[in-house]
Amino acid sequence: MNEGFIAVHVGAGYHSMQKKHAYKTLCKKSCQKVTIMLKNGCSAVEAVSTAVVSLENSLLTNAGCGSNLSLSRKVECDASVMDGRTLNFGAVGALSDYMNPVLVAKELLLHQNNENLSLHRIPPCVLVGEGASQWARSRGLKNVKADLLVSENALHTYSKYKRKVEEAENDPRKFIQREPANNKILYSEAAEMENNACISSETWLPGDESLMLDTVGAVGMDCCGNVASAVSSGGIVLKHPGRLGQAAIYGCGSWAQNSLSSTEPAVAVTTSGNGEHLIKTMFARTCAETLISNTDGVTGFHYVFNTKFLVEVLWAHNTFSMVLGYMSTHLSKAVVGYISFVIIKLIHIQISVCHQYSLLLQWKETTKQ
Please, which residues have CB within 8 angstroms of residue 342's CB and are 6 or more apart in sequence? Predict the structure, then answer.
């Protein structure tokens, strides 16, 4: 029997030092809860879905209740789950009336093998908007009023950004493209945020995703050696209604595939960051394929980072901070970290969390000879 494992992250970006303990506690509790489930024999799909539900239920994250608001002042969530054993994928996009969109995505994944439609119709794997909501209700998943997903903080952020956009539209001189941020710029801005209680990540315009929290995710392996991944996101603030990020797109927000041989690793990936960029590079799948094709995972991911500008090994980020946690069924407690700038840490299971950002689990099944 293999070692069960779970790893989670709350989205790369800027994490206030004042909330450092809260972020770490959230990751810790999520890992602890799921590890107990893994010890009791739960599947990898159930493990990562449950982990992401814990993250969605927290107002600290940009997922589920409290997510960023679109231009129409609504929460519109994206989420997906992928099963490495079957390669099935389930996703929802622009979902506005479910506290835990990842559970709807999981149901879509599970019904692909268990649902027989008349006239040989094919069950859906991705649904968006009202269609996704109708499908979920037909499967017995309880929805809520859309207004219940709107938090006071999200509404405050929406109002501030909306005002800035209106001011810019009324003054053409304010339509200035900001230069891409680097670590020096991020450090300076983050330091200002910490030193001035009146300044928060909300101060920056919507284009400044580098200082905003984004998609949460989890990767895991059950005790049978199956891997899975799951992500959930409220998207960028003031996004166009109906906009989909990478969390809802196949091969972009999540990826998982079991090992096919004793020499090939099982891989599970989640991503977080600028959805449009991640979609264009099919980032999650690209990370997995690169790792599998390279015997040296470090070399493989340095190649992806240098050529796709997206990822570093083993976990890494080029935003100001990253908060993550991991735990296995052989560990007595969860390991959590608040990491500033690009810090690379190697553990027995390889994990990567990064710029346009990724959480990756690699597991080489040495027990299968």
Answer: 183, 312, 316, 317, 318
Query: Who contacts 142 (Cβ-Cβ below 8 Å, separation ≥6)?
Result: none
Question: DSSP code of 217?
Answer: E
Looking only at the bridges linking them, the beta strands covering 357-364 and 126-128 are: unpaired
Place of tokens 């810019």: 168
Global pTM reads 0.83
215 has catalytic annotation:
yes
> Which of 35, 61, 157, 215 is labelled catalytic?
215
Q: Assess whether pLDDT exceeds 80 at residue 217.
A: yes
Reading the block at residue 99, the tokens are: 């506290």
Q: Distance between CA 231 and CA 239 in Å, rounded? A: 19
What DSSP string runs through 78-97? EEEEEETTT--EEEEEEE-S
Among 71, 85, 91, which residue's Cα sits nearest to residue 232? 91
pLDDT in tens, 296-341: 655 665 565 555 533 333 454 555 677 888 888 888 899 887 765 4
Rounded Cα–Cα distance for residues 365 and 292 (Å):
13
Strand pairing report for 89-95 and 126-128: parallel
pLDDT one-digit tens code per residue, 70-85: 999 999 999 999 999 9
Residue 28 makes CB contacts below 8 A (sequence gap 6+) with 325, 334, 336
Q: Cα(83)–Cα(44) distance, rounded to whole angstroms?
A: 8
Q: Which two tokens stand for residue 158?
A: 């929406």
What residues contact 281, with CB distance under 8 A and at least 6 apart? 308, 310
In whole angstroms, how far apart are CA 118 and each of 90, 115, 121, 123? Answer: 21, 10, 6, 10
CA distance 319 to 338: 12
Q: CB of 51 within 8 A of CB of 31?
A: yes
